[in-house]
Amino acid sequence: MTIVLVGETSVLLHTKESQAVELALNTFEDLVREGKITGFRNKVECNLSNEIKEILLKASEQDLKDANFRYSIVEPWLRGQPIEDNKIPKRTFRDWKAKYLQAQQKYGYGYSNRQGS
Fold first, then answer.
1. What's the total number of domains in the chain?
2. How confident is the model at residue 115 (pLDDT cuts 50, 70, 90)?
3. Which superkingdom heads the taxonomic lineage of this protein's source (predicted)?
């Protein structure tokens, strides 16, 4: 797995198959302390394109918070789980799904902090 983003309360990881995994930050830290998560001894190439790396590096903290929030709403749908009735309007949810899928197709990586992606 590759660490993609570390937020205030969670860590976003990607598997080799590009599946997103989100762990609570305290759970991630516990797994590191227990030795269940370790770093590579050799340098490992990141499989994110330069373009998506650039987008993520230019993102402000608020951009990333917004993207984490949008992803937390869309993520159950991505895993085939039923969507809970929440406070997000259905039109907004459809827009976020479409933007995720567009970014996935364009960059090979759906998570994006860009409203226009």
1. 1
2. very low
3. Bacteria
Instruction: Name 83's Cβ contacts closer than 8 Å, sequence gap at least 6.
Output: 76, 77, 93
**112 lies in some domain:** no
Whole domain around residue 50: which residue ranges?
Answer: 2-107
Answer whether residue 92 is part of any domain.
yes
Give the tens place of pLDDT for each residue, 34-68.
888 877 665 555 666 777 778 777 888 888 888 88
**Backbone torsions φ then ψ of 41, nearest 5 degrees:** -80, -30
Residue 117 lies in a domain: no
Nearest-angstrom CA–CA distance, 101 and 50: 19
The rounded distance, in Å, linking the Cα atoms of 42 and 58 is 27
DSSP 40: -
Taking the complete model, does pTM exceed 0.85, yes or no?
Answer: no
Structure tokens at 53: 């790396």
Three-state DSSP string of 74-100: HHHHHCCCCCCCCCCCHHHHHHHHHHH
